[in-house]
Predict the structure.
Amino acid sequence: MEAVGQFGPGFKPPTQYQLKEPILKVEVERTKQLLKNNEEEWVKNGCSIMIDAWSDRKRRSILNLCVNCKEGTTFLESKESSYEAHTSRHIFEYVDKCVEQVGSQNVVQIVTDNATNNMAAAKLMKEKRPRIFWSSCAAHTINLKLESIGELPKYKKSLIEKKSSLRAMFTSELWETCKWAKTNKGKLAYSTIMSMSFWNGVTLCLKIFAPLVRVLRLVDGDRKPSMGFLYGELLQAKKDIKVALNNVESNYQPIVVIIKSKTKDRLDTSLHTTAFVLNPYFYYKDGSIALYEEVATGIFECIEVLHSNEFELQDTIINKEFAKYRDKSGLFGKALAAKACEDNDDAFDPLALRILSLTTSSSGCERNWSAFEGIHTKKRNRLDVNRLNNLIFVQFNARLLNKQKREKERNVDVLLAKDASNAQSWIVDGGEEDEVEPGSGLTWQIVDEATGADENIQLRKSSRVRELHEDDFASDEEDDHNEDIEFVSDEEQVVENYGEDEVDQ
């Protein structure tokens, strides 16, 4: 109504036919034109196909397909498959059709979560298209790491937000007159809540989770290609965790075991290790990383996949082109080149190669559930498949384009290894619209206590001009309670008793 009022008197709404046929077709074509830069990037530096399967609040099973490149994420199509089994063959055929649509020569990798059917589909894809990688979603994998660490006895705490309230309760007159205050359990609870060592332990928990959450924000943020940073940031996260635990092996070893087990064959493939060494942000700081066994092996394996059956081209890339970079000869050896690689901010853009233009996460596919549910309601459940896909194509891509615009306007740097305070605030808050900035009005005690941050680091809502969002038009009929999100467990064994026994590496 606000938008209509701004238009002024004399407005004549389009007819139902105009909305669902000619106007929709025009909007689809307009959206395609807006995405031309993305499609050109697919051809220039390659792209990733991301697929995500989920069930909405009405138990409808949806498959989402998106394409990601250096320019951002593009929604390709959705498919409701409530009456089809998500077998490996079904997933493979659906993704393969998308590969044909995008152009097999443009697709470098396919990104999915770690579900068994997806991994089986990867084998089928490898047989048909050996030049395309199939990668595990980094966001999903890191979530599994955090979930497993959270199951360790020492880290089953979620009390830091309630610290002030708990301490106030145990020092109140009500507690002194309470019958539980005289019991052994009551006295034990009182001594625990008032113990500084207990709260130091809770603070330590945040310090342990923060490095991994920082990496999670990196891969889930969709602000810049993350393939070149994931492996190196995971290495840094392990170092930060060891430092947080005073480098005591018996303390950090169970966590390292979890990180390694969840990383193996998922986030340490030849694609990840090659991107790691090709990123000068890491290589110019420590040239010895090229000698790591997994990195050296990964480079050969990666080039063999990207250019299979092209021996002369493989020889040129590895023995000539990569050798110049490895030895920092020619332009790579200039002091200006090293200076340009010092800071990992949004202005830093590593080598414009197909590998370093890749994403590591399929999170972008998960963000159109509201678009699907907003269109396919009980009142509008007779939409034909083509019109439904067109509506979602227009709405979801409009949101992606607007999100990318807002992110650029906000100009918030990708989290670096030292930015633990921001990562810890994100653990608690979880909102995309909130940023920790100096000079704002509400002190965030968690950041101060967990990291010793300056007292001026505070929280505020981002100020911006009022915009109309999809949430403003929520239907009462669709206003169901959100269901809890469950991460798929891969049933791997984790260390159950923290610190009781040392675990061999």
